[in-house]
């Protein structure tokens, strides 16, 4: 009888993420970074897609930049963003592959204070459903840089859209809430 009137432990545990989502900020400040040696403002479809999807979801894009695939430049920019009060989340597109020029993974991995291994794992799983075994070529990574959420994704517009729709937008406020605690 007692259990019929009250939530079971499983029901209570299942509602915790939803409670956290309700307490999360509805809008967060985001930096959108494209890592590329070849993209320009006109040809950066992935970065434009990121910015447009963030804005459509009510978030603000406080900075959008294209940075060459140079470890020192990527690192310097990320450290600047870590210290900005108006940035809650840093989203990078590009440079996550395995070519000799792809530097995003190494730089981000070396800077993260806490890792979110599930982010990359889930993105690869979802990508596998679209592109098959080629999904293993992405080294997408996520975690915390100080109190900032930092997530990377491949440069292809399809991968950006997949990451945003299925992973990032549904949890961005929740991620930022937890990062601030």
A few lines on this structure:
The protein has 181 residues and is α/β, with parallel strands linked by helices.
Query: In CATH, what is the homologous superfamily?
Result: MoaB/Mog-like domain
DSSP E strands, number: 6
For the record, the count of structural domains works out to 1
Q: Which architecture per CATH?
A: 3-Layer(aba) Sandwich
Largest sheet: 6 strands, mixed
Strand order of the largest sheet: 2-1-3-6-5-4
- Helix fraction bin: 40-55%
- Overall mean pLDDT stands at 92
Reconstruct the topology from this structure.
Layout: H1 2-5, H2 9-23, E1 29-35, H3 45-56, E2 60-67, H4 71-82, E3 89-93, H5 104-111, E4 114-115, H6 117-131, E5 142-145, E6 148-153, H7 157-180
Parallel strand pairs: 1-2, 1-3, 3-6
Antiparallel strand pairs: 4-5, 5-6
Helix pairs in contact: 2-7, 3-7, 4-5, 6-7
Overview of the structural elements:
This protein is an alpha/beta fold. 50% of the residues lie in helices and 18% in strands. The relative contact order is 0.18.
């Amino acid at each position: 009888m007692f259990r019929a009137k009250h939530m079971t432990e499983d029901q209570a545990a299942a509602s915790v993420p939803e409670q956290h989502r309700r307490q999360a900020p509805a809008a967060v400040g985001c930096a959108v970074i494209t890592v590329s040696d070849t993209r320009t403002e006109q040809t950066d479809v992935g970065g434009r897609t990121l910015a447009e999807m963030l804005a459509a979801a009510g978030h603000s894009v406080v900075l959008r930049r294209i940075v060459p695939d140079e470890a020192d430049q990527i690192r310097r920019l990320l450290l600047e963003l870590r210290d900005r009060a108006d940035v809650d989340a840093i989203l990078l597109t590009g440079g996550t592959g395995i070519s000799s020029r792809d530097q995003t993974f190494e730089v981000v991995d070396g800077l993260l204070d806490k890792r979110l291994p599930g982010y990359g794992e889930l993105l690869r799983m979802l990508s596998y459903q679209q592109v098959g075994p080629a999904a293993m070529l992405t080294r997408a990574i996520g975690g915390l840089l100080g109190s900032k959420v930092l997530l990377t994704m491949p440069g292809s517009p399809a991968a950006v859209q997949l990451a945003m729709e299925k992973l990032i937008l549904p949890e961005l406020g929740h991620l930022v809430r937890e990062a601030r605690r």
